[in-house]
Amino acid sequence: MHLIVPKDYDPKLSVKDTEAAIRYIRETFQDEFGKEMGLQRMSAPMMVEKSTGLNDNLNGVESPVSFKMKDVPGETMEIVHSLAKWKRMALHRYGFKMHEGLYTNMNAIRKDEDLDNFHSIYVDQWDWEKIIAKEERNTDTLKTTVRRIFKVIKHMEDEVWYKYPKAVHHLPDDIKFVTTQELEDRWPDKTPKEREDAICKEDGAVFLMQIGGPMKSGKRHDGRAPDYDDWKLNGDILFWYEPLNCSLEISSMGIRVDETAMKAQLKAADAEDRVNLPFHKKLLAGELPYTIGGGIGQSRLCMLLLGKAHVGEVQASVWPQSMLDQCDAANIHLL
């Protein structure tokens, strides 16, 4: 557990006003995001059958919350970590066409999460996925999509400022693009998180590309599951967050694996046994559409726009008593 306690913190909004602002941000953003991206809202599961291979295994070490279901004997159900693979299957199953897509409210439990100002065991985000052509699986498509998402976030800043002028946290006017290798070349002696902090402090908002595969040093900037993002065509949207003097990740996204990338990444992750799972079979057989997609943190967006010191100010979760005590002493009101 790691907690940053800002000096003389002022939440600016009462708990009741914060709750009203949360509702406004969530409802307004999803409508504007769906229109800008051409996405239809769809319902999504909170749990999936383990045997489908649809759950996200994150860095490969986090175990999902699981349980047995009385009416489905012999099967293990897992609370989702994310819907990264489920969305691609849904686009295929529901007959979405070229350049059509979906977004959904995703609620997950990540019980092995390391808790801090940004991380909770409860994850709430807008998961989205959109069909693209094979020839659109390139950096230009990725950057264009990132700029559209950034445009919606910036517009939300204006909307929130109009309603809550004393509370809004102002964002940079543009987003820059950089690769993990460029950061390693520039700051070889820094840790990945220190590099993210340094580049975000310099540029304000950054899309950090190519996460998951090894860099020239042989090390990885961060882990990524091998069976959804193409490690050469993915990234994170990061902001410099002055209230806590560090970077804040709002979105992880990317162009998804094709058959070739899937095989290579499963081999690199020593996970070739997954080729026999239903999702992986369909993908390798060319039955699933080529897509781009990701997740945008709902609580993190509220936190970013309202300048909050802790994600627990904009979502109700479970926290260690020591963290509750520290936050209470620092005027940080956890829900």
UniProtKB/TrEMBL annotation:
One of its GO terms (biological process) is L-asparagine biosynthetic process. Its EC number is 6.3.1.1. Pathway: Amino-acid biosynthesis; L-asparagine biosynthesis; L-asparagine from L-aspartate (ammonia route): step 1/1. InterPro entries: aa-tRNA-synth_II, aa-tRNA-synth_II/BPL/LPL, AsnA. Transmembrane segments: none annotated. CDD domains: AsnA. It catalyses: L-aspartate + NH4(+) + ATP = L-asparagine + AMP + diphosphate + H(+). It is found in: Cytoplasm. Keywords: Amino-acid biosynthesis, Asparagine biosynthesis, ATP-binding, Cytoplasm, Ligase, Nucleotide-binding. NCBIfam families: asnA. It is an enzyme of class 6 (ligase). GO terms for cellular component: cytosol. Residues 23-320 form the Aminoacyl-transfer RNA synthetases class-II family profile domain. SUPFAM superfamilies: Class II aaRS and biotin synthetases. Belongs to the class-II aminoacyl-tRNA synthetase family. AsnA subfamily. One of its GO terms (molecular function) is ATP binding. This is Aspartate--ammonia ligase.
